[in-house]
Design goal:
With 544 residues, this protein is mainly β. 3% of the residues lie in helices and 40% in strands. The chain has a four-stranded antiparallel sheet, with no helix packed on it.
Length: 544
């Protein structure tokens, strides 16, 4: 988040946007009433690109499948679920069959619900996997491709011990594997969120920590950032980037609240004060909550989410605070409003382009306004099938807006896997760019607005221009074991590496992960040289 300078016309536009508040109507008569464990899910379960409402309890799974005509088909799948999601739920197509599966976070163990289909179109039932008896007092759960091998893994926070990563073996087995991401062996892990906070093209993980009963200064309360090194390893550097809070945090949201191309963070705390962390564009943060208009001393919130509810082009905060909705004014400040609910799963439950909320068998429909919007559904090919972890960028009169597709945000609920953007009064989008987890980049020029686009990975690869070649970026820089390249589709490109004396010390090729192995080099400064589209490109990097 950077300081924004606005011209007079833009200030008038912001004032008009600010006037567009949000109202919701309870339309629970449209849906079924099913037992719920308290974790709510608003996500497309059957692959028709419409968000559905899911409740899971010990007696089975109740789903309101959204239909194109605005109605719902309600169905209850009766089955015994020994460990219902009393603490968290996450969703993702973990077996790649086109139907969404669920990770259930319980106070004793983690279990999995695999969606089954007999006709390839509709969900016919679920297979319940409760075979892993490993004890875990789970908090936030996520579905994410941690090792970026194209299938989705899982990560579950542990309240009383080290958190659990689950590696996907591709055969409906999620197996605990602590080597998948090595985290600190400490308790108090409350909410994990996967985000590319440093804009280097790979996904990092922020761990919000509380540890009830721990006194101030106890390291079990230290929030932690696990930065992806680009080589399958992660380094905890929360203190270095200004994100090691010790105020018994419950959950954190990362969104680009001012549309400057990087993710900022809002943290709800139980001691000290809440935080609004400003990203300086280089992945370093400073707390500016005093200037935002958000009550820093409104402590004790659990849930914490964010989305653009009035479609004005700026992301709002939806949180379990005294003022449940803080609308983003577009100038670095927020205005608080009261809602009749303070948490739930977020999705577009009537497919009108405005985001709604589901909670405890209530369907809260957003009344909407005249603002424009666009939604994107992703189909991965090299990446995971739902494009979880992908970054979507749209460009227009506003500059840039960015979103990431994430499974498991806030503290307990599961929200839509659709990329949603409000456009305000803007009547067009110049271009839309998708940066896939695989490193592939697709570009779509002048996409239609007020509609849902379904984009398949590789359908519209970004053209490599002279500017992009000459602006090639290397990351992480400094590098430890591997060096990644900002341009995609460089697999098998030959790269020469020279030391400061001009001696060639390495001749290698870029691998399928868009990386070059530099682990054999000594510490120091090096120059790489490679040929792209007939042009010789040179860049400097540091090996540490």
């Amino acid at each position: 988040m950077k300081k924004i300078t606005l011209c007079a016309a833009a200030l008038l536009a912001v004032a008009a946007m600010h006037a567009q508040t949000v109202s919701f109507t309870n339309e629970d008569h449209l849906i079924g009433s099913y037992p719920t464990s308290g974790t709510e899910t608003a996500v497309d379960m059957n692959g028709d690109h419409l968000d559905d409402y899911v409740r899971v309890s010990s007696g089975g799974v109740g789903i309101d499948f959204q239909n194109p005509d605005g109605t719902f088909t309600s169905q209850f799948f009766s089955m015994s679920i020994a460990s219902p999601p009393t603490w968290s739920i996450a969703a993702g197509d973990m077996d790649g069959d086109g139907f969404t599966d669920l990770v259930l976070g319980n106070g004793n163990r983690v279990s999995f619900l695999w969606a089954d289909s007999t006709d390839g179109t509709n969900i016919s039932g679920f297979t319940y996997d409760n075979s892993d008896s490993t004890y875990i007092f789970s908090q936030r759960s996520n579905v994410v491709d941690i090792d970026n091998d194209g299938d989705l893994d899982a990560f579950v926070c542990h309240d009383v011990d080290e958190s659990h990563p689950y590696r996907n073996d591709g055969s409906r087995n999620l197996i605990i594997d602590q080597s998948l991401i090595v985290t600190l062996d400490r308790p108090g892990n409350y909410a994990s969120l996967w985000v590319d906070y440093d804009n280097d093209g790979d996904i990092d993980m922020f761990l919000t920590k509380c540890r009830g009963g721990a006194s101030s200064g106890d390291p079990d309360r230290d929030n932690a950032m696990y930065t992806n090194n680009g080589d399958g390893t992660f380094t905890e550097n929360g203190l270095d980037i200004g994100m090691r809070d010790n105020a018994q945090s419950w959950s954190t949201v990362f969104q680009d609240f001012d549309n400057d191309g990087d993710f900022d963070a809002f943290i709800v705390n139980h001691t000290d004060q809440n935080r609004f962390m400003q990203n300086d564009g280089n992945g370093n943060f400073v707390d500016i909550i005093g200037s935002t208009g958000i009550n820093a001393n409104d402590l004790g919130a659990w849930e914490n989410q964010a989305a653009d509810f009035n479609n004005d082009g700026f992301v709002d905060i939806f949180s379990e605070l005294a003022r449940e909705l803080y609308l983003n004014n577009g100038d670095g400040t927020f205005t608080g409003y009261d809602l009749p609910f303070d948490e739930g799963g977020i999705g577009d439950m009537n497919n009108d382009g405005f985001l709604d909320v589901v909670r405890n068998n209530d369907l809260w429909i957003n009344a909407g306004n005249s603002n424009n919007w666009v939604k994107t559904k992703l189909v991965g090919v090299e990446s995971n099938i739902q494009g979880i972890g992908a970054r979507i960028e749209i460009y227009g009169d506003w500059g840039i807006q960015i979103r990431e597709i994430r499974s498991g945000t806030g503290f307990s609920h599961m929200s839509s896997l659709t990329g949603h953007f409000g456009l305000g009064a803007a009547a067009s989008i110049d271009k839309l760019i998708i940066k896939w987890p695989s490193g592939n980049v697709d570009e779509y020029l002048n996409p239609d607005i007020n509609t849902t686009h379904v984009y398949t990975e590789g359908d519209s690869p970004l053209a490599v221009t002279d500017f992009e070649i000459n602006g090639l970026q290397l990351y992480p820089n400094p590098a430890v074991n591997s060096l990644k390249f900002s341009l995609s589709n460089l697999t098998d490109t030959e790269v020469a590496v020279y030391d400061t004396n001009g001696r060639r010390v390495l001749l290698g090729t870029i691998d399928q992960n868009n990386s070059l192995d530099v682990s054999g080099l000594n510490k120091g400064v090096y120059l790489i040289q490679l040929e792209i589209e007939g042009q010789t490109v040179s860049q400097q990097f540091i090996k540490k």
